[in-house]
């Protein structure tokens, strides 16, 4: 079955720049050039919420793993952390000295990585929004930065035409990929963490193995790719979706090394795209102010499909390296692997994991609420000081 358009949201007053699903698929967050974020409910007839606070275009949004926080970055040089409820409260901090183009939570929800036109990548603690360190070897705007699934690596892409891989612990750049012929708009890690994909203004998508630092696949030419603005891996790791300036979304089959689908829907450039955490849906945004939610309709039994295959890494009809796509694609567990575990044990583990996740989510909200209160107290203190200073001046003027 082909992917199908499931929902269609309209509410932004300018181009949609970024989109992300909450973990439970209940909500979708979007950022826009209209300086606002919107939280859309996946339930029919539920109203959307507009969050206002940024003073300029919102260029990036991301849900925390627990789904209890949303990070946003803006042309106003700030990052905001929001509680995605009706009140839409947020804390704000000046993150960079120029436009913030990318925000991304680590998989444990404890760290945030940001990328900016000031040519730096910065890492922060989520609680208290404390600055940790900068990565500053790019020589032009940094468009995108992402944590690896295990949180040990960071990848960044830039207008200097490079993709850089960083070790989070040593804070060193461990490799630069220089094969792109234009600005690199977007980069992301494969779910296995063993390879990365990047797309940009040279109208190509490239996949590299980060263990061997070699090019695995290269898509261009007969795929009619236009400028690639955004991309997202399916959680199975078998597919990649791209959003392009020619208004299309394209789904690539990474096992076969071929184009599966070209989807039309946006009137004007498709600016952003993201799969839901379980891969059942993906959402796209465009310069036409529209947000679209698509049902994936892929074969869900990925275990039967996944076999390491050899094929050419180039899909432009010119050359191929015959490399193996061995990014660490996950096979489904067989029955024999699970035979030793009872249903009760599995249920207990699931219940415990859900409880822990809920506690972590509540901690996120509590620390964020404390941060909001602290910011309000600071503002109140500043106002009180100002009032006292004004009173003192008045008294001095009277005595004089």
UniProtKB/TrEMBL annotation:
Q: Which UniProt keywords apply?
A: Coiled coil, Repeat, WD repeat
Biological processes per GO annotation: cilium assembly; microtubule-based process; multicellular organismal-level homeostasis
Q: Where are the WD repeats?
A: 9-50, 51-82, 93-134, 135-176, 177-218, 228-262, 263-295
Task: Read off the InterPro entries from this record.
Answer: WD40/YVTN_repeat-like_dom_sf, WD40_PAC1, WD40_repeat_CS, WD40_repeat_dom_sf, WD40_rpt, WDR55/POC1
UniProt xrefs under SUPFAM superfamilies: WD40 repeat-like
Q: Name one GO cellular component term.
A: centriole
- Into which family does the record put it? Belongs to the WD repeat POC1 family.
Biological function: May play an important role in centriole assembly and/or stability and ciliogenesis.
Q: Spell out the protein name for this chain.
A: POC1 centriolar protein homolog A
Q: Which organism is it from?
A: Pomatorhinus ruficollis
